[in-house]
């Protein structure tokens, strides 16, 4: 695998028509960060901070969190890192946070997880905010909140960070030179109020793993449903298209950080509907950079526009045929 990474490391993801696409990678552990250099990814578009919580027998204390975040920033060097606050609960249960509320959930994926849990266990979010702010002292900090369903949740989470930043400032501690806040769009409800949240964000990252599960009401962890709904279905693509168009005019970056973006035809479709930032599994970075170089955005945009207006009977077959015709 390392040899494959290396061969594509220096491929610059410019499309055939000359647009630079941002190809970033997802990570969750300190060791994952070495893939940044190996793959030549543009940065870490999703750092899943809950991994540290999931592999620990006890709640990771603030100092331990801070050490990890600092190591990750050091290893990333000039490349940006987007830290997502913990997404625990749901399918990512941690024994030391077990509570009656978590234990009796019938639908944990739609339950008390991610930002919902962080906002109630405020001590948890405060500690994470302090750890991130201290780790990024003198550098840029990108913070992303998971499972934002309504704008107030974003505001409340950001306020926790700002209170911690004020505290550090009052102690004359060095702060990050810039703090950028973003949200994940993985709960469909947020898409209906985009214009309310967009002005408050620096970036929006679409989490297609959870989004698909909620759009189709299909448990992402249930193997019986794994093959049932296609990421290339008109329902998903139209939804993603609407989201991309919904933020036009706001000075925010929009991207996709779900697994969808790491697959060839899916990435092609995403580029065709206007996404220019993908954060994907490290093994996909090289292949997707290579794909990008073969694409003319005007051509794929025109095809997607037609197919979204009037979906072909099999979108996957249509995209496969199109890719073959265009030597992609
Ligand atoms: C997603 O839901 O698409 C996502 C990127 O986050 P996770 O897979 O960690 O839930
Ligand atoms: Mg998710």
UniProtKB/TrEMBL annotation:
It is found in: Cytoplasm. Keywords: Cytoplasm, Kinase, Magnesium, Metal-binding, Phosphotransferase system, Sugar transport, Transferase, Transport. The keyword Glycosyltransferase does not apply. Its main location: cytoplasm. GO terms for molecular function: phosphoenolpyruvate-protein phosphotransferase activity. Belongs to the PEP-utilizing enzyme family. This is phosphoenolpyruvate--protein phosphotransferase. The chain holds residues 426 to 753 of 756 of the full protein.
